[in-house]
Amino acid sequence: MDEKEEEEVGEDDMVSFHHLYCALKKNTLLIYLELLYFYRSHQFQKTFKFPYLKNPHFDSHFDLKDPAHLAGKSLLWLARDSHSLSESLRDSVKLLGALLYNRLDIAETLACSSIHGSVAEIVRAQLTPPEGVDPDGQHLRIMDKLANCQTAEKPISDVILSHLNKIRESEELSLASKQIEEFAYWNKRRHELIKAQADRVLLKIRAEEITKELAELEHQSEKLFFFENRLKWEKKAAENEEINVEMSNK
Question: Are 84 and 163 in contact (CB under 8 A)?
Answer without folding.
Answer: yes
